[in-house]
Every structure is written in C-alpha cells, then in structure tokens.
Amino acid sequence: MAGTAAPTPVMKPSAVCVDNPYPQVWGPPATLATRSDNLVCCMVGLPARGKTFIARKLCQYISFFYGSPCKVFNVGEYLLRLVDGKFQPASFFDESNEEARALRRQASEHAVVDLCEWMSGQSPKKRKLSSHDLVEDKCSSYISGEFGAVAIYDATNSTKERRRWLVERLQDLGAKVIFLEVTCSDSERISENIQSTHKSLQVQQVLSAEEAGADFMKRIGFYNEVYETLSETEYSWIKFVDGGREISLHNMRGFLASRIAQFLLNLHGQRRPIFLSRHGQSEYNRLGKIGGDSVLTSHGEEYATALADWVDKEVKIDATGKPRPARLWTSSLKRTRLTARHIRHDSLTLPSGTQWVQMRPKMFRNLDEIYAGLCDGMTYEEIEREYPEEATARKGDKFEYRYPRGESYTDLISRLEPMAHEMERAQETLLVVAHQAILRVLYAYFMGMRREECPDVSIPLNTVIKLTPTAEGCSEERFTLLPNLKGKELDPASH
Predict the structure, then answer these.
(1) 460: domain range?
(2) Pairing of strands 463-469, 274-278
C-alpha cells in the first residue's frame, strides 16, 4: 500500500465552455413496465430453512438497486393476527387438525388478496374476508416501475396442490410467477435458524429454550410428512440448496428474474460482521473542500494508527477470542489507502490447512467518493457563490441531484451494485475503508432503508460501524476510536 502510485483519475474537470442552449435534462419520465413484466416470487420450503431471511434480502436488493416496488407478504404474520398473537403448539400444524388447517388456509388467502390489491395499485384493506369475497376479488389495474414490481409470497407452499392453487389464484394479475425452493441438509444451520425463530416464544415466557426447540422440531415433522419438492415442469422455479452450495434454475426468463438468480448466486447464510469506516481526516476535510485526492492530516494519521490497533482486537478476533479470517477493502483514493496502511497482514492457518493473509488490502475504484465534477475541490460556500443554481438544486433533492459533469446518489447506487454482490458473497469478516457518500449507500442497503434515505445517513469521522446480519436484517454498533477529537474542524457539516 505505502509507496503505491496513485491511479490516473477516470474523469477530470474541464474548463471548456460549450454553447448548449438545449441541455439534456436528467431524469426524463420513464415508461412504466407492463403487467406482464411484474413478478410474484413464491417461497417453498420447510420451516427454519431461511426462506424469510432470503425473502427480505431479495426485497431490499430489488427495491434498493432498481427502484422497483417490492413487498413481502409473510403468511405466518397473517396467521399470527388471526389467532390474536397467541402461541400455537406443533399440533396446530398437523394436517389432521381440521380446525387449524382452516385457519391456516384463511391466512394464506388473506395474504394473497393483499398481494393482489397491492400489485393492482390498491391499499390492502384490514379486514377478514369470506371465501366468496376471495373468489370474486379481481385485479384490474397494476402497480409497476421501470422494470416491473415484485411481490414475494413467503410461506411453506409445501405441496403441489398448494402451488397449483397459488398459480390459479394469481392468474388475474397477469404477472409472471416463479417459485423459489429453499432446502437445507446442514443440521447446524437448521439449529441456528430454529433458535432465532423461537426466541420470541422465550421472550413471551411461553416455553423454555428446550421446550421451544422440541416443539418446533415437531412442527417441522408435520410439514415434512406432506412435503413435495418442486418438480412441476410447467412452472418457473429456482432451487437454492444448502446456503447456495447448489442452485438450479428452470424455465427462468426476464430481467428481474435474472437479477434475482444472480443475487442468489452470491448469497449465503453465514452471519459474519461487516465493518465500515471512513478514512481519517484529510487535508480537504480540514479545509472544508469536497472531493479531491488529498492526504491525511495529523489527526487523520492518528486515526489510522488507532484503527490498526482496534482491528487487531475487534476485527481479526471473534467473540470467543479466536482468530478469524478477515478482509480489507479500500477505494483507490489516497486518503483511504493511507488510513489502512498501518493494518497488519499476519498469516493465519485455516482449518483446511490453507494459509490466509489477514486483511490483505484490495482496492476498488467502485468505492471512490461521489465525483463532484466541476465542483471537485470546492467548498460548499464556493459552490453557492459560483454556481448558485446548482446549490439550490442540490438542496431541493440531494438524492437525485447530479453535480455538473459529476455524479448523483442514483449513480452511486448503480456503481455500488457489484460491490453489494461481492459483500454478500464474502464469507469472511470484512472491513471497508471508504468515503461518506459511499458508506451512506452501503449502510442504507444493509440496514434495509429506502434508497432515497441514504443521503441523510450519519457517517462521522473517527468511527467504525459494525453491521451484523440477523434474521430481520442487520444489527448495528458504533465505535468511536478517538473520542477526544471532536469539533467542526474535524468533519465539516455535510449539506
């Protein structure tokens, strides 16, 4: 890292003035996709296989990176409302229990009705429907985006009869229907999923940990008795086996369907943390300038040294105190490479016998800061003075605003999609040393936020953010490495 020549900038600001009385305006209205471009993804699989985790990840990915309307309809949540949130033992899921089976069917139908109403552009009504209403309900219009909308129907859908019912029930939507079967033979992973699933029961003090685990295993047994794996050749489907060890596709077509398949190729169920850190204070930070490729100040160098020591204790070591393999990514700009240069790259022998170099630095141009174009190297005050219309436009819509000959947050999202794939794929602990706008986008994605919210995410200097995947999304911890270094001069206010 030290002594490495700085890469040649991809773009340089130009002082050439062009007579352009009819400039192209960014963001012309796009034509919405048709009903047939919309997609309904129906999950298939036994409980505790990771269906809900995958459904939520898929929904966030599609909506965040493509701006497509996407929503998950979890049948388990509908069932919970029907039974007033009361715990139901494993016997409730026995097919021979006719009363319980009727309730479960009712929950499935309510979820389908709400799915149809959402995709048809209506607001799902909070009411219980008779079976006559369910049969007669039609979906006349539709909700869409440039690439179409995606609804994810999250349930076991474990029999051919249930899948046939779903296809028939969704026929009026005019949308493509694909099935995503999640199977797992890894007993350790299943056990982890069961533990996270029955935690709520322990919170309610309904069952002890041992009782909840035994009850859930019994519930899985009832589902397993009637389970039929996906084999219907007339449907479109994906099979996701053992956390992505094996993936099969059948009759898959269309843009969104292909993006879902590619995303699944990089997905796994291992809960390893991701650490995000801005570079140490740079000369441009101190001067209040944006962009550029400046070096660190003395404060920035102090953070770089503190970060290296902190990484040894918190990133390379797991919760039990044992060494764990870890990765290090930076942008191509000097301030991130200089911030990471003190991190030590000791060797670790993996259980397979392979020698792993800890925190081997990997540099990505995709992680470079948002490019400010003609405003690169200016202060916000200078921009307001030299380009008052640009300053006003940025204040009006920080998310869509594009710097003259530069980038917008929407551009960053497109540029960071490959990085999201790589971050999802990495099974080792990862530290990303990058920039404020870049980390805002990555943080918003992993925390399940709307893409439009990313410009307002707080990413302060001298701070490491730890994101740990959970069944619901990610948990967050923040560590301020230099608490004594505070003040406006360290991190000029982001406009």
Answers:
(1) 274-480
(2) antiparallel
Check whether residue 305 and residue 329 sit in a common domain.
yes
Q: Which member of 116, 184, 375, 454 is catalytic?
A: 184
Specify whether 369 is catalytic: yes
Residues 235 and 291 in one domain: no
CA-only gyration radius of the chain, Å: 26
Per-residue pLDDT tens over the stretch 250-267:
999 989 999 999 999 999
Rounded Cα gap, residues 292 and 286, in angstroms: 13
Contact 431, 277 (CB under 8 A): yes
CA dihedral 17, 18, 22, 27 (to 10 degrees): -70
* CATH, residue 163: 3.40.50.300
Q: Is 154 known to be catalytic? A: yes
Rounded Cα distance, 75 and 70, in Å: 16
Q: Give tens-digit pLDDT for 163-193.
A: 999 999 999 998 999 999 999 988 888 887 7
Q: Which of 109, 114, 154, 376 is catalytic?
A: 154
Helix/strand/coil for 151 = strand
Rounded to whole angstroms, the Cα distance separating 93 from 338 reads 58
In this structure, the answer to whether residues 319 and 437 fall within a common structural domain is yes
Indicate if 99 belongs to the active site: no
Amino acid found at 248 = S
